[in-house]
């Protein structure tokens, strides 16, 4: 997801070793942050896919079965278990968790005992960590989402594709500040008023 921070040569060398299949997998760099692994056995593919989600160099990977897709962003799917906190007890049901999950992506499974869902998200879209849910009767509540085994994301815009130092949102606001577009704002864009005495 973040080719600037993930070394492709190291990834192609290390992942088969991490999976303990280095003698049965061949990897190839396809360029533009994409790669491909060739497996000898279908069982090996299935074993690897059970290990989702994947990460390398503290950043996430989208690893999916090959498909002749034309979309230049393919692949972008990442499967996460997401713990949902804040659901009111009388709304604690599979349908509630599925509705929350559908706002994130494609729901694969619901674990009511642990209060979590397994969902396939689009790794190029920002992560959602909290959202307001409206229940029957107009009851609204804030729920908080915690992604299991999540590595590396921008703390400013929640993207998986860059860190906060390379965030385009940060760059735009810093450029506006540099040009003096925030001069009329007594909070200087930070929400806390700064006053100087002369």
Automatic annotation (TrEMBL):
Residues 168-198 are annotated as: Disordered. It comes from the Eukaryota. Residues 122-168 form the Zinc knuckle CX2CX4HX4C domain. Residues 3-71 form the DUF4283 domain. It holds the Pfam family zf-CCHC_4. Residues 168-182 have a biased composition (Basic and acidic residues). This is DUF4283 domain-containing protein. It comes from Eutrema salsugineum.
């Amino acid at each position: 997801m973040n080719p600037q921070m993930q070394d492709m040569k190291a990834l192609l060398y290390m992942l088969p070793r991490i999976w303990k299949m280095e003698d049965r997998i061949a990897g190839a760099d396809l360029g533009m942050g994409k790669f491909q692994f060739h497996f000898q056995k279908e069982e090996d593919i299935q074993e690897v896919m059970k290990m989702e989600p994947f990460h390398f160099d503290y950043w996430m990977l989208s690893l999916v079965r090959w498909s002749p897709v034309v979309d230049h962003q393919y692949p972008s799917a990442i499967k996460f278990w997401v713990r949902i906190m804040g659901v009111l007890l009388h709304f604690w049901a599979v349908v509630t968790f599925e509705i929350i999950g559908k706002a994130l992506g494609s729901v694969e499974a619901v674990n009511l005992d642990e209060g979590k869902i397994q969902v396939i998200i689009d790794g190029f879209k920002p992560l959602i960590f909290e959202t307001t849910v409206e229940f029957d009767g107009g009851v609204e509540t804030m729920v908080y989402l915690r992604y299991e085994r999540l590595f590396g994301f921008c703390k400013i815009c929640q993207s998986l594709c860059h860190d906060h130092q390379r965030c385009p949102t940060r760059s735009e606001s810093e450029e506006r500040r540099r040009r003096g577009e925030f001069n009329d704002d007594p909070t200087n864009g930070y929400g806390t008023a700064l006053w100087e005495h002369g």
